[in-house]
Amino acid sequence: MVIVDTSAWIQFFNRPESAERHAIDVLIDADRAVMVGVVLAELLQGCRTSQESSAILSEVRGLRFLDTDFATWRRTGELSRALRSRGVTLPLPDILIAALATEHNCPVYTLDPHFEQIPGLSLYRPSRQRFIAR
Q: Is the distance from CB of 3 to CB of 106 less than 8 angstroms?
């Protein structure tokens, strides 16, 4: 399972010939792409029309969905505190994604480099050699 971050989904929806589109298609085909609530909310908040919203919901509706619970939120707060004590302040949604990823032992596919600052977080790096531009 791979949590796909908002930054990768944006490329998926906006650039159909992109490497990100290909990588996410591969994850979806292999039933490895995972959606989390905060990513879904971020995608939907960026929609300009109800048609865009419907297209996103249609695409992600069949994906596995990881819920948050008390332990996830606790882990999120503790991770944020630990990062801040080292002088690193990251957006709370991204810390939540990292907490879910570590809780479920799955990597995150993201284009945001600040995820690299989160200790113990695995990042998904798709093979660029498999991508063939059409």
A: yes
